[in-house]
Amino acid sequence: LQVFDDEGKNVTPHPLFQSDPSTAVFRQGKLYARGSSSTWISNESTPKSDLDGTAEPGSGEDPALSLSAVQEGQEEVEEALTEADLDQRVDIYLSETDTLWMFDMPSVMVSVEAEDAGRVLERNKIYVDMCKTKLGNDLFVERTVQTLAGAAKNKEAQCETISVADKGMMVISWDLDNSLDASGTEPTSRAEGSRSTRGESSRSPTAKEPDETLSVSSDRGITTSSLMIPESAVPVRSQEEEKHHSEAILTSENFKQNLVIMERILMENIFQPKLAAYRQIPVLIEPDVTSDTGGAAAATEEAEEEEHGKEKKDEGTEGKGFIDPSVLPDEKGSPEEGAAPTLEQLWSYTCDLTSSHSVSSMAWNKANPDLLAVGYRELHSKDQKKGLACCWSLKNPMWPERIFRCEHGVTALDFSLASPNLLAVGTSSGSVTIYDVRSRHDATLLDSSASLNKHTGPVWQLRWVEQDRGAAGGDKKERLMCISADGRVTEWLLQQRLDCRDLLKLRRAEREKKLPGEKEKKSEAPISQQAAGMCFDFHPEDTDIYLAGTDEGHIYQCSCSGKEQILGTYRGHKGPVYRVVWHPCSTATFLSCSADWSTMLWHRDSGTPLLTFSSVTAAVHDIMWAPKSPFVFVAVKESRVEMWDLSVSVFKPVVSFPAHPEANLTCILFAKNTDCLLLGDSLGGVGVWKL
C-alpha cells in the first residue's frame, strides 16, 4: 500500500525500524511444547510491517499470503498436539520492560536519618556562615527582584494663589469634644484655633474647597487631621455613644490616677495644720482676701478670725503643755515643777472598710517612713474570717493606698528591709502570705498554703531579721521568722514557693513539787507538751539570740545556732506573755508585758524580774521603748495608754491617758522622725497622737 499526494509524490510512511538485510532477525512467536522439545515460530519469512500493516519496501512478497501461511502452519502444529502434550508443564518466563522516565525533579529536603544528612547539614552551615560574612560588604545586596526605576517626570499645573494666615486661640479638650456635637459654625472656628495652637498653618477656604473640621478628641490627647471633611459630614453623637464615651473616661487608668493626685492635694490642704504639727514645722495661715461683697465677705472674715484664734490658742497650748518626758529631769527637775505631759490627737486612720474590724498589728515601711501597714481582724468572730491588710499614707489619712483582703484575720505583719516593697502577713489560720505593695491588685506574691510544714495555729508575730553569715565582706542575709500558737519558731525560705524549717519547738514545763522541809532547787522542768508561742524579739546586736514568750507566762532565751537552743528561762508572769522587747541601748535588759496586769523589767543574767510595774487591774496588751529616751516606755492597757519614765518614778506612770469609752486599745507604735504615737483600737481606728 502506497500513499501519494496531490502532486503525485510518494508519501508512504517509512517503518520506525530498518533491519539490516545481512543480519537474520529472529522474533519470538508462540511457544508450543511437545514432550521435552519446544517449537519456535519465527517471522523470518514474514516481512516486517509498519504501523499500518504494510509490507516493508523491497521485500516483494504479499503480506496477506505470508500471514495466511503462518496461520496454516499454526493450525497444523496445533492439530499435531495430543492430550498428553497438553497435560505437560510449560515454563513461561516474563521479563520487565525498561522504565520510561517522563519527568524527574530532585527533592530539596533530606531526611535527618539519611546517609548524606551530615554532608547536607555541613553545606548549609557553610552557606549560612558565608551569608553572615557578606552582610557588612558594600558589594553584597540582598534583593527579591531587580527592577529598573522609572524615570522621574515633572508635571506642572497652574492654580490660584494660596493665601496663608496665622490664627490662634485657647481651647481645651472639652471644647474640641463638644465641637463634634455642634451642628453649625462652631466646629470650623474651633478647628482653626486648634490647628493654630499646634503651630500649623491653616488655609482659608476658597470657593472650590469645602469647609473642614480638624479636631479629634481622644483619651490620650488631641490630634489634628489633615483631611478636609465637609461640615455636613460631621457625625452627631447619639445619646448612647455619649454615654459609652463618658463611661470610658471614668474607667480609664489616667483618669483614676489624676483623681488620686487631686484627692491627695485636697487632703493635704485639709490636714495641713495637723500634718505640720506631725512633722514639727510651722503651720501656714492663709492671708486675708479683701472683697467687695458685703454680707458674704463679713461672714467669711468672721469665720477666718475665729479659726485663726483657735489655731493661736492651740499653738499656745502646745508650747506650754507638750513637753518631752525625756527632758523633764534635765530642764524642770521634776514633773511637779513644770507642766504635765499630755497627748493630743491629730487625726485617725479609719474608714468605712475598717470600721467592723479590730487593729491587731502595725509596721512602718523601712524605706518610706510615711507608709504604714496595719493588720485587721474580726475580734468577736469565732472563725476569724475576713481579715484586712491596709497600707496607709500621710498623703491621704482618710483612705488606704493599698487594700489586701485575706481569708482569715490578720494577726501580724512586717515590711522587709532588703526589699521594702515586700509585706509579710500572718493570719489566724496559721498561713503566711507575702504581698508586693507596688501592685495595685491584692494578688499574693507567695503563699504558704502549699507548704507541708505550715503552722497549725495563729501566727502571733513575724519579723524580717538580718543575720550575719560569717562572710569576709560582712554580707547579711535577711530571713523571715515566725512564732505561732502551735509552739513552733520557724524560719521561712523564699523560693518559688514559701517553705519553712523549725528553729525551736516550745515545750510546756511541769510545776516542781516541793517536799515538806525541802528547799527549792533550781532545775529544768521535764517536758510534757507543747506550749503556745505568743511573742518573740531578736537581740539588737546579736541576731542569733532571741526571746520567746509563751502562754504559760515563761520567757525563754534561745539561740538560732548551736546544740543548746534554750539558753535560759525567766519565770515571773502568771498569765500569757503578750509582748517582750529588748532595750535598744542597754542590750542586757528587756521588758515584758502579760495578761496578769503587770509589766516587768528583766536582766539577761537574772531569772527574776528587776522591777514590776502595775497601775490598774487590766491586761497589758503591748509595750514599746521610746526611741528618743532610754528611760521611757509606753504600755497599752485595755482602757488607757500609760507612759512610764524610770528617771522620774517607778511607781506610777508620767502619763495615763484614757482611750475612747467605746473602744479598747490593742497595739502601739512610735512614729519615725517625730514625737508622735500611734494607737490601734478595737473599732478599726489608728489614732495619731502628738506627745
Précis, in short:
With 691 residues, this protein is α+β, with helices and mostly antiparallel strands.
Q: Report the average pLDDT across residues.
A: 75
Low-confidence segments, given as residue ranges, are: 28-61, 183-234, 291-297, 310-337
Largest sheet: 4 strands, antiparallel
CATH architecture of one domain: 7 Propeller
Strand content: 25-35%
User: Roughly how much helix do the residues carry, as a percent range?
Assistant: 10-25%
The N- and C-terminal alpha carbons lie at a distance of 138 Å
Write down how many β-strands occur, each being a DSSP E stretch of 2 or more residues.
36
Please state the overall shape, judged from the principal axes of the Cα atoms.
Answer: elongated
CATH superfamily of one domain: YVTN repeat-like/Quinoprotein amine dehydrogenase
